[in-house]
Design goal:
Keywords: Membrane, Transmembrane, Transmembrane helix. This protein has 128 residues and is an all-alpha fold. It is built from one helix and no strands. 0% of the residues are buried.
Length: 128
């Protein structure tokens, strides 16, 4: 072999070794950069975790208040229904009492020889 060929082989070998070393160094640097970036992202996520926990707690509290309000509304609806039923029952009783009272007044008018016109009853509108 010629000295020039040996020199070129050595130069090519050195260049190949340098290229492999450069590629290895670049890959190592990129890997380290990615590790650093991932660590920063994890740190930010850990910092935000507390805020997210507070938001979740607030959402749970609001949902609980909504359930309480719904339960109160259900109780009010039930109370309203009960009162309406009571009012209807009392209204029916009042109408029955009014009819009995009207019947008594009519009976009294019927047996009274001096009654020539009906006397308006207290609490009743004369137009009815």
């Amino acid at each position: 072999m010629d000295n020039d060929v040996v020199v070129w082989i050595i130069v090519i070998a050195v260049v190949v070794v340098l290229l492999v070393a450069a590629l290895w160094f670049a890959r190592r640097t990129r890997t380290q950069h990615r590790r650093t970036e991932a660590a920063e992202i994890r740190d930010r996520a850990a910092e935000q975790s507390h805020e997210v926990g507070q938001k979740e707690a607030l959402a749970e509290e609001t949902a609980a208040r909504a359930r309480m309000a719904e339960a109160e509304a259900d109780a009010k609806r039930a109370e309203s229904t009960r009162l309406e039923e009571r009012a209807q029952a009392r209204g029916g009783e009042a109408a029955k009492s009014r009819e009995e009272l009207d019947a008594q007044v009519e009976r009294a008018d019927a047996i009274d020889p001096d009654a020539t016109q009906k006397i308006s009853q207290p609490g009743r509108d004369e137009r009815s």
